[in-house]
Amino acid sequence: MAEKKTEQNTTDPVLYGCEILLEKTTLQKVKDPAFPSDAKLIWYEVNGETHMDLCRGRNVKIFDMYYDKYGVGAVKKIDFGYGRTNPRVWGYKPKEAKKRK
After folding, report:
1. What's residue 9's pLDDT?
2. pTM for the structure as a whole
3. Domain-embedded: residue 69
4. What domain range is 73 assigned to?
5. Counting runs of H as helices and runs of E as strands, what totals does the chain give?
């Protein structure tokens, strides 16, 4: 017997080369300049409600991810974020210094 697969609205951002920084957030939270400068704001609509995410990745890949996740007509707008941090150093954690004997 063949098993029926249930279709879920879950997609892995790693498969699309994207990284979701904030999900279903507010404009006040995304205006933090500590986010990377290549982060994008995505407005999308689900069940009549408009949501906003902060995501990193190429616009085409971001659109594909949200299209596959929420369906046709879900993505309303993709815009630049407010971050000012260089993307290469964002999230960098220096190594812990070893104690000398």
Report:
1. 55
2. 0.77
3. yes
4. 27-80
5. 3, 4
